[in-house]
Specification:
Layout (H helix, E strand, L loop, with lengths): L1 H17 L12 H8 L8 H4 L2 H13 L21 E8 L10 E9 L3 E12 L2 E9 L3 E2 H18 L2
Antiparallel strand pairs: 1-2, 2-3, 3-4, 4-5
Helix pairs in contact: 4-5
């Protein structure tokens, strides 16, 4: 009987231990939960899994087009517009789109950054398999990351072709 009672006491712990903690890579989570998990630790992200195929390709293409003696367009963490510092998530809000789509979500992210105070940006999310992916980051002062990358890449390629 002792063994049965002991087994029953351990059952909830065993079930809890087998339930994986929800992470950024967990499938079928809401866009808001995805963003909250994303900001739980920005230092441990796998860019290829977190960014959409198009955004990841734009980042890689820009880095490849940038001459070795120059800094690429993206020389900071795009999810906080920072190079370092502690990011503390404050609020995630779903934005109502003019043309809503089941294939895109926009989330306004408010956070604080050590030494810089409150900041805000917008993440455009699209489905990627059974999870979400960041397809673009829109900054209040400089606009779309993806558009900026593509424009800078085009400029780099044009300047490269004009060099002897």
């Amino acid at each position: 009987m002792k063994h049965v009672l002991f087994s029953l006491l351990l059952l909830p712990a065993a079930v809890f231990a087998q339930t994986p903690a929800q992470s950024i890579y967990s499938p079928a989570q809401s866009p808001k939960t995805f963003v909250m998990n994303l900001y739980s630790d920005l230092s441990k992200l796998d860019a290829q899994r977190v960014y959409s195929k198009d955004l990841f390709a734009a980042i890689q293409e820009n880095a490849a087009a940038t001459p070795e003696d120059e800094v690429p367009y993206l020389n900071f963490n795009p999810l906080c517009a920072c190079q370092d510092g502690k990011v503390s998530l404050r609020k995630v809000t779903r934005l109502n789109l003019a043309n809503p789509s089941q294939f895109e979500e926009s989330m306004r992210v408010s956070y604080t950054l050590t030494g810089q105070g409150k900041k805000t940006l917008t993440l455009k999310l699209i489905p990627k398999g059974k999870m979400w992916a960041v397809d673009d980051v829109v900054y209040p002062d400089s606009g779309s990351l993806k558009q900026g990358l593509k424009q800078d890449t085009a400029r780099q390629k044009k300047e490269s072709s004009a060099r002897p």
